[in-house]
């Protein structure tokens, strides 16, 4: 396992990010220079590296203005892998994700040229780096638990078990792309390895089943990550915000696609107004669910509940009046005018937008014991935005397997 660098950064609202830990590996850096050849980009000092990273993630106040190459609707970030512009070129692949106020970052070694960029699944260092960051996250979270908390770990005697899991697609399902696997996966079908380089609309694209043989570690882990293209978003929406004098007029229409399972664990839409004073007056009409005002009086929460009505369509219209802005009030330039948005939060049990599923009867366990096998699936929204009607933008959502 080889890393060029590893960082842990604390994110503090309203304050500068603080580097808690950083480590570089000079011998790995020499190997990177050899493997990458002319495409090699030097790893800069921490101050330059972290400034570029925080800018890319929009985590500093001065970097929140719209930047075309970073914030354009034409760019869809599929994974937690980033390219950072630093002196001499783009530093890639930088892995970074946030959890509980901390930013976990590392730069794995790529043992080949970076131009053209190879598919992520062909870079063993990517999955290894994800495993390191995930393990670091688990360790830090466990150390912060209350001493009174129901932790357990079970070790079984004998040789380690070998398991094979098959992920299946429906007949009309879109092929999986950008597949990343945990290092415990022992081998992959050659068709899976080449799938990420084939256009998802190509008839020759691999459509499964996707078999993952692995030797499971003793702790919980994520077996794989992937992205997939689907014809329509689960929830279609229209949002229009018009300013008239000191008031805003809102119109929101949402429609659940008929192919999506109408059984939510929760579903709500949040409408932020972070560039104005507190909401002092609100008049609205809602066809379904209920509308709540946040304690800070800068956010409307439309609680839709666990089902859409039989028509699968709901609407909200209203007028919002604001008070004056305090001097300390922070301004977010992304949440005004054409960049105003609503954000959806939902979870649908026993459903995936891709149709992917794992049949528990197809799970093979090579062990002397008789394990109990349970499989489940669910769809969880991640970054699901509906922009003001003058600025259409793509929707991004995430499917999780358990």
Question: What's this, in brief?
Answer:
By secondary structure, the protein is mostly beta strands. It is 13% helix and 34% strand.
Word description of this protein:
This protein is mainly beta and 402 residues long. Strand 10 and strand 11 form a beta hairpin. The protein has helices at 26-36, 46-56, 68-71, 124-143, 190-195; strands at 3-10, 18-24, 81-86, 89-99, 102-108, 162-167, 176-181, 210-214, 224-228, 235-244, 247-256, 266-272, 279-286, 290-293, 299-303, 313-322, 341-349, 364-366, 377-380, 385-387, 398-401. The protein is globular. Helix content is 13%, strand content 34%.
Descriptive labels:
402 residues, mainly beta, 7-stranded antiparallel sheet, 5-stranded antiparallel sheet, 5 helices, 21 strands, 13% helix, disordered C terminus
